[in-house]
Specification:
This protein is an all-alpha fold. The protein has a domain at 18-57. The protein is 63% helix and 0% strand. The longest helix has 29 residues, at 20-48. The mean pLDDT is 77.
Length: 59
């Protein structure tokens, strides 16, 4: 009779889906939202003051 070798199954690791993909998606959406907020703020400032220059204000 053949011996059962229980050690071979341990070498094969089944990878489960990690949460990094969803965390990366959330981070990307946060970055996108931050960029949108920045653009909204610039637009509001330009609406209030037509001479507003974003580049010179952020230096």
């Amino acid at each position: 009779m053949d011996r059962l070798d229980y050690g071979t199954g341990v070498d094969e690791v089944i990878e489960r889906p990690t949460r990094t993909k969803s965390a990366n998606k959330k981070r990307k959406w946060r970055e996108i939202e931050a960029i949108k907020d920045k653009h909204r703020l610039i637009k509001e400032l330009q609406d209030m003051d037509y001479n507003f220059d974003y580049d010179s204000a952020m230096r």
